[in-house]
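Sequence and fold:
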Amino acid sequence: MSRLIGFDIGQKRMGVAISDPNRTIASPLAVLDVVELRADQRGLRRLIEDYEIHSAVVGLPLTMKGEEGPQARQIREFVADYLAPLGIAIHYIDERLSSKEAKKAMREAGTSEKEARGRVDMVAAALLLQTYMDQVRMD
């Protein structure tokens, strides 16, 4: 089985998480600058190649009614422009409140607000990826 990669894509930063080879545990991996990524995808391509990724899980920001709004369209456009060309399968998962949950988990772990600022995106990506893997196992 190959690893999965998870993305929590924001306006400025993209959190990245990776699964273990058995797809049971998701771990925060990195935070990438979205502006830099739009200009140069080599770092992202290297991640995909180094971890031998065939599938990605992407958080899709739905409205509280569960519908796709402008933010979800932006994510789908980003995926079409920057992730789909990498030749990996894309799976979307509802990401409502993922950043809020990540902040809560980090606060409970004793992480200060300052420390959390740069890491919350990758923790949110790990939560999204873990939720996806748990759902797939239950199906």
In short: The chain is about 45% helix and 25% strand.
